[in-house]
């Protein structure tokens, strides 16, 4: 979740990085002369690293959209306090 004040710039940068990745992909496929395993390993290792890094992101379920950069910085820090103050729902 990007704060409102930087949302357009952040989405633009994310889109630009996706395009850079699509431009680099053919060069990774060209690693075949160095070994048949190089390209599949490169295409497999980087997504796994990205998935592991995503595990470190704070949970945003039931959170309101962030309006300021300060709220974005405090999102992961106040997560434990927010969980303690959430009332239980009656079934």
From TrEMBL:
| UniProt keyword GTP-binding present | no
Tell me the keywords, alphabetical order: Membrane, Transmembrane, Transmembrane helix
Q: Where in the cell is it found?
A: Membrane
Q: What is its main location?
A: membrane
List membrane-spanning regions.
9-31, 37-57
Q: Does the keyword Transmembrane helix apply?
A: yes
Q: Domain Major facilitator superfamily (MFS) profile, which positions?
A: 1-62
> Which residues are the signal sequence here?
none
| Bilayer disposition of the protein | Multi-pass membrane protein
Q: Which InterPro entries does this UniProt record tie to the protein?
A: MFS_dom
Under the GO molecular function aspect, what terms does this record hold?
transmembrane transporter activity
Top-rank taxon: Eukaryota
What's a GO cellular component annotated to this UniProt protein? Answer: membrane
This protein's name: (apollo) hypothetical protein
Q: Which organism is it from?
A: Parnassius apollo (Apollo butterfly)
Q: Lineage of the native species?
A: Eukaryota, Metazoa, Ecdysozoa, Arthropoda, Hexapoda
């Amino acid at each position: 979740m990007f704060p409102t004040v930087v949302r357009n710039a952040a989405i633009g940068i994310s889109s630009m990085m996706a395009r850079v990745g699509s431009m680099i992909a053919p060069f990774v496929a060209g690693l075949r002369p160095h070994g048949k395993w190089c390209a599949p390993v490169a295409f497999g290792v980087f997504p796994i690293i990205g998935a592991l890094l995503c595990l470190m992101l704070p949970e945003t379920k039931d959170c309101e959209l962030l309006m300021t950069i300060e709220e974005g910085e405090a999102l992961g820090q106040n997560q434990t306090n927010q969980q303690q103050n959430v009332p239980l729902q009656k079934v």
